[in-house]
Amino acid sequence: MAAVLESLLREEVSVAAVVRWIARSTQGSEDNAGEAAALSSLRALRKEFVPFLLNFLREQSSRVLPQGPPTPAKTPGASAALPGRPGGPPRGSRGARSQLFPPTEAQSTAAEAPLARRGGRRRGPGPARERGGRGLEEGVSGESLPGAGGRRLRGSGSPSRPSLTLSDPPNLSNLEEFPPVGSVPPGPTGTKPSRRINPTPVSEERSLSKPKTCFTSPPISCVPSSQPSALDTSPWGLGLPPGCRSLQEEREMLRKERSKQLQQSPTPTCPTPELGSPLPSRTGSLTDEPADPARVSSRQRLELVALVYSSCIAENLVPNLFLELFFVFQLLTARRMVTAKDSDPELSPAVLDSLESPLFQSIHDCVFFAVQVLECHFQVLSNLDKGTLKLLAENERLLCFSPALQGRLRAAYEGSVAKVSLVMPPSTQAVSFQPETDNRANFSSDRAFHTFKKQRDVFYEVLREWEDHHEEPGWDFEKGLGSRIRAMMGQLSAACSHSHFVRLFQKQLLQMCQSPGGAGGTVLGEAPDVLSMLGADKLGRLWRLQERLMAPQSSGGPCPPPTFPGCQGFFRDFILSASSFQFNQHLMDSLSLKIQELNGLALPQHEPNDEDGESDVDWQGERKQFAVVLLSLRLLAKFLGFVAFLPYRGPEPPPTGELQDSILALRSQVPPVLDVRTLLQRGLQARRAVLTVPWLVEFLSFADHVVPLLEYYRDIFTLLLRLHRSLVLSQESEGKMCFLNKLLLLAVLGWLFQIPTVPEDLFFLEEGPSYAFEVDTVAPEHGLDNAPVVDQQLLYTCCPYIGELRKLLASWVSGSSGRSGGFMRKITPTTTTSLGAQPSQTSQGLQAQLAQAFFHNQPPSLRRTVEFVAERIGSNCVKHIKATLVADLVRQAESLLQEQLVTQGEEGGDPAQLLEILCSQLCPHGAQALALGREFCQRKSPGAVRALLPEETPAAVLSSAENIAVGLATEKACAWLSANITALIRREVKAAVSRTLRAQGPEPAARGERRGCSRACEHHAPLPSHLISEIKDVLSLAVGPRDPDEGVSPEHLEQLLGQLGQTLRCRQFLCPPAEQHLAKCSVELASLLVADQIPILGPPAQYRLERGQARRLLHMLLSLWKEDFQGPVPLQLLLSPRNVGLLADTRPREWDLLLFLLRELVEKGLMGRMEIEACLGSLHQAQWPGDFAEELATLSNLFLAEPHLPEPQLRACELVQPNRGTVLAQS
Amino acid sequence: MILTKAQYDEIAQCLVSVPPTRQSLRKLKQRFPSQSQATLLSIFSQEYQKHIKRTHAKHHTSEAIESYYQRYLNGVVKNGAAPVLLDLANEVDYAPSLMARLILERFLQEHEETPPSKSIINSMLRDPSQIPDGVLANQVYQCIVNDCCYGPLVDCIKHAIGHEHEVLLRDLLLEKNLSFLDEDQLRAKGYDKTPDFILQVPVVMLCPLAVEGHIIHWIESKASFGDECSHHAYLHDQFWSYWNRFGPGLVIYWYGFIQELDCNRERGILLKACFPTNIVTLCHSIA
Predict the structure, then answer these.
(1) How many Cβ contacts (< 8 angstroms) between chains A and B?
(2) In this structure, are A595 and A453 located in the same domain?
(3) Are A439 and B189 in contact (CB under 8 A)?
(4) 8 Å CB contact of B246 and A433
(5) pLDDT value at residue A854
(6) Which residue has the higher pLDDT, A124 or A33?
(7) DSSP secondary structure string, A1056-1119?
(8) Exposed, middle or buried by CB within 10 Å (0-12, 13-18, 19+), for A253?
(9) What is any Pfam family matched here (chain B) (predicted)?
(10) pLDDT in tens, B126-181
């Protein structure tokens, strides 16, 4: 490899030839013979060039970027040596580049040897490389111990590892295993090391922008699949402590290793990485080294390397574009070399031209190189967000080294509208209850219905608790909520309940996390949140306020692991804590379905010749719509991947050897949870990669180690790799993918290739069929890929790690201030709108084809309008049928039922039987529904289409659109009706029957016909509750005990009865129970009046109520009973032994009021004589004092002796108003 | 009517071991003349109920019942017209109505072959005339009319108050032209949880000091004072359930509440002591 680079540096071959050589397997005709010869001899190494180059650059720069590993992930192969180690510069051997740690004693003299060895190793079949993988601990110690040798073997290209171990003699414990580079044959002992763990960055410079757990930036060479765990599980490994532990362990070991080295070597090349013990020099004392173009040491060499490097980037030969950019930005903003360069002896020009001297001898070199590379990638830079552009344009080094580039960047900044805005989600919103899907009719039993009711509440309770506590230190999801969640899941017995719960879960998931900090509210298929309709003003203010309160959030380095930020964490933890097989299965089903649905959504296609301004407005909408769909898909796919691969992930190292073979054999039998391969193929064919690939990447990012080895998924990776290679940004032309679309795909794919479970050699191994990525020649001319659907907002939302570039630049500006991980905040998208209509799935046959063709040349809004109208009218049609035909049938059912009840008497027979009879009579009428539905759609659709389309729509187009809308609506409605009408009628009739039967039952009083208040009533009467309370007070005073000064005035009593009359006449606030109690209390009051038991306020002489007053009050009561009470009044209580007994206590006993009352009752027709006689008769049976019994008998006789004068009249009354008094009050 | 926790505690402090009689109420009103009577009564009632819940068990041991019953019997033998049962209840710090129920149950156990059913007891308490023993009937009746926290009359008053306020709220909504679904309509549609009213078109309530308003999807009327205990129970059984289904909403505690409880505004549960005046409705020209 180095030979290639060297021949390049010696100008034996041109840059273009080298790049061609790498990218293609054969030399192009344009290569001259000399070049071809020079390169063809190195043919076997072709694939290893890029990894070599990347590692070479990383290693060369490690002195400038001393924190080492956090450097953007290196590519395959391990690090190279630090050239400028204090002990003395590498002595002329190429091996220098392969050193990781400073003391390089043993150097490889033949760089080719390890390469050859590696190459040999590589020739083996892919899976085979997994053999001999080492355990975690070994792998870790391999950092400086023998294991490292293995790592090299396994790496896809870098020659450097072995010597690194050798470079540290004290640690070289096993020379047999780790002989000097080049002398080690690729034997079976070449074990695979673990991926190298990057020390935590602690450098003073990078402290703010460096992620503390940048675990995905390890060199690609470390085989992720050979590496158990820690890294893989930590992102979601809440429930998997072993992973975390091993990560800690690794860190700890690394730390020890480093400090050992520090002790051994006088000058630390890498600051000790521990977090807790800052070096004294860490803060403040550093001064930035100014960069000066005039002091660049070997321009030509740097230019050449920069050119090769840039070309590799441009050709997508590097796995991750943004990682390389990040690296270049780091070089640009490097502050100082770690070791003083001054002591180095002057290097001779000859040395400078080769690789033997360090590439970067000073900050000046670094900056020069960085600027060279950036110049080649202006196009990418100019598409970054406005904030990054500003920082770049204002970077003084850039200005100094390339005023031209700076000028272009400034211009790009000024022209940029790519403001990526920060928006916080409004606080959690619950999924709303929809009777159509959530009411009792959707459940198999009452029990299931009520269980789900409780579950919904428990779910939100848990969610709220999580919101309140999850940021508190020491709070633990499982401890805090686990048992409650499992108890709740335990209640979900019926499969139907599971699907209900999963639907709730998924909807809530979309609602809360559709986009990281998405504007919430607008969930697919749901009405937009009302807040957003209330005026952007208020909303904007609200969000700005929230934005200010938002905590800074680091996305975790340029290549963060898959994580569940924010609310997503809740859903992940919920799944883990629930640990319910049924739930997971239902969830996967539901997620798969939704993904397929959204992925297949007919998003409007770009129309290149839309010239009027209207299309602009349309595009805003299209983009938003696309963003909503894409973000939803990504979220769903992420969770699908998480759940689907959950059973296969664990902290233990991936299996090897025979075990692995058997696992592979087993796993290859398991059908994928969702046929993602087909979806990807279709997506590529239909030129919808920009929609399909980003969610597929999310899905795959959760794959376990075995997945990439399975044939099914290998195919997917192959497709993705080809796609990646084909996305050459500089090739822009008609019919090609839009620039930002490409950028998005490059970013997500690049990210995927860095995921530990994705073997990095996959990337470099892939034979590049590469060039044009023509999957299918019959691809549609214009797919989603050709439409400008991606903007910076979406790019940054999907790939927040791109924001790391900005952080890096910003931290350069702000110096080392702020150690909180950067002041840059998470990038979140702006609000998005809900989706338009979904395509009808019924397009079949010629008519459908014609309709498709019709839409093809119409603006997309037309199609959307028609589909929307059809969807709505179809749905309304069903509702219309429900409200008319079905409602009529229900009414018929009710009257039939009434007849049944009359004929069969009170019982009415068995309800189930009744229902059957009714349904058999009524269901046949359902057949009318189709005709009615057709008629409805015919009538309603055209008007709606007409109202929604622009006026200038040509008549023919309009009428076609109308007809299509009618057809689609009818189809939709009739499909539903023919399948469901019988069940619907049955359900509604059933509900009506149970309603009727229930109404038969209790509370006749409540059902009784009641008069309302008069029209003129203003409802100012005293409230019933007040009156009951007042009367109760009087009763309690009368019954006692009471204080001597307590009593009521006659006026008060009169007033009270007056108020009672008012209240009874104004029915506004009166409810039946209150009226019943008022009736009863009024009877009690009458009894107390009769017995003269009401204590009257005033002088003792007046202590008792005057006869006249008492009669007047009784009259008022009689009138109330007669005129105003609408419910039954328990008048017979007047003659209950208890109330009559009140008279026994008075001395002298006065019977005249009772007699008066009885007469009036008869007079007014409130009680019949016979009834009163019966009551009086039963009174005699009670036990009374002797004299009282006598007096009672006298009263009876007196009453009975009276002429039966009013009798006939009374009878008439009774007929008119059936004896109220006899009805017992319900209470 | 919105009290601070401190104010509320001061009132509650005065209510420790006060019998639920009209005399007690009168004294309370004198002690806190600035508070509305309804609020005081509501607090009194709630405090007393808490007290009874705490002490309920000790009155229901068989020894206690037996001893109360004997004391009752001895009392009425001496003087059947004296408030024996009421005095007994006040003396042992138990609600008169509940004491009446206790003694009535015990009495019926003694005089009937079959143990009395709950519905018979309830019916007799509602209409003491049905009690076979005249003296006991009078004693029970006296307990019931003198108890301002328990008993069928009090239950009816509470129910009536609740109903009246719902009607009041409905009128206010109609007056403001806010269309709504009421509990009965919701139940008919099959809703599993039913607030008093769901607004068909949500509104925003503006707050004087806040920049933003609060969205209201539903309104629940509570004709009582919102103290911690009842509010937490309502939150758990009703308000959060409404939120879970319908989004943010408004609770009106017509007799006031403890200010500190209004802490879930941001979350979407807003407390008020009256119908809010500063309501903004959806303006169709904006939408």
Answers:
(1) 152
(2) yes
(3) yes
(4) yes
(5) 75
(6) A33
(7) HHHHHHHHHH--TT--HHHHHHHHHHHHHHHHHHHTT-PPBPSSGGG-S--HHHHHHHHHHHHH
(8) middle
(9) TPD
(10) 999 888 888 899 999 999 999 989 999 999 999 999 999 999 999 999 988 888 88
pLDDT digits (tens, 9 = 90+) for B189-205: 888 899 999 988 888 88
Asked whether residue A134 is assigned to any structural domain, the reply reads no
**d(Cα A1048, Cα A1069) in Å, to the nearest integer?**
27
Q: Which chain B residues are Cβ-neighbours of A1182 within 8 angstroms?
A: 134
Amino acid code (one letter) for A804: E
Closest CA to A1027 of A1095, A950, A944, A1125: A1125
Q: ipTM of this model?
A: 0.92
pLDDT band at A620 (very low <50, low <70, confident <90, very high): low
- Report pLDDT for A2: 64
Structural domains of chain A, count: 4
A321-350 average pLDDT score: 67
Residue where the block lists tokens 């400090």: A259
Do the Cβ atoms of A412 and A389 come closer than 8 Å? yes
Higher pLDDT, A861 or B96: B96
Do both A897 and A929 map to the same domain? yes
Put simply, whether A461 touches B (Cβ < 8 Å) is yes
Q: How confident is the model at residue A1100 (pLDDT cuts 50, 70, 90)?
A: low
B244 vs A430, A1032, A1133: nearest CB? A430
Residue A182 has pLDDT above 50, yes or no: no
Sequence ranges of the domains in chain B: 2-56, 60-150, 161-281
- Return the bridge partners of B281, or none: B203
Judge contact between A579 and A486, C-beta under 8 A: yes
For residues A248 and A764, give the distance between their C-alpha atoms in angstroms, rounded to a whole number.
31
Q: How confident is the model at residue A574 (pLDDT cuts 50, 70, 90)?
A: very high
Distance from C-alpha of A1179 to C-alpha of A1135, rounded to nearest angstrom: 8
Which residues of chain A from 420 to 459 reach within 8 Å of chain B, CB to CB? 427-430, 432-433, 435, 438-441, 449-450, 452-453, 456-457, 459
A34-85 confidence digits (pLDDT tens): 666 666 666 556 667 777 888 888 877 776 665 443 444 444 443 333 333 3
For chain B, the average pLDDT equals 88
B-contacting residues in A 1028-1087 (Cβ below 8 Å): 1028-1029, 1032-1033, 1035-1036, 1039-1041, 1043, 1068-1069, 1071, 1073-1074, 1076-1077, 1080-1081
| DSSP type of residue B3 | B
Amino acid B240: pLDDT: 93
pLDDT at A591 over 90: yes
pLDDT, position A1066: 85
Q: Do B189 and A1071 touch (CB under 8 A)?
A: no
User: Is A363 found in the same domain as A451?
Assistant: no
User: What's phi and psi for A1066, nearest 5 deg?
Assistant: -95, 110
Range of the domain at A24: 1-67+288-338+356-415
Q: How far apart are CA A995 and CA A1010, in angstroms?
A: 21
Among the partner residues A439, A461, A1137, nearest to B191 by beta-carbon distance: A439
pLDDT bracket for residue A341 (50, 70, 90): very low
Together in a domain, A966 and A1066: no
Residue A810 has pLDDT above 50, yes or no: yes
CB burial readout A653-665, b (16+ within 10 A) else e: bbbbeeebbebbe
Q: Is the dihedral of CA A645, A647, A652, A653 positive or negative?
A: negative
Distance CA A149, CA B257 (A): 73
- A541 touches B: beta carbon within 8 Å: yes
Instruction: Let me know whether A509 and A400 are in one domain.
Output: no
* Count of positions (residues) in chain B: 287
The tokens describing A146, both together, are 């023998």
Interface with A, mutate which of B146, B221, B238 (most A CBs under 10 A) = B146
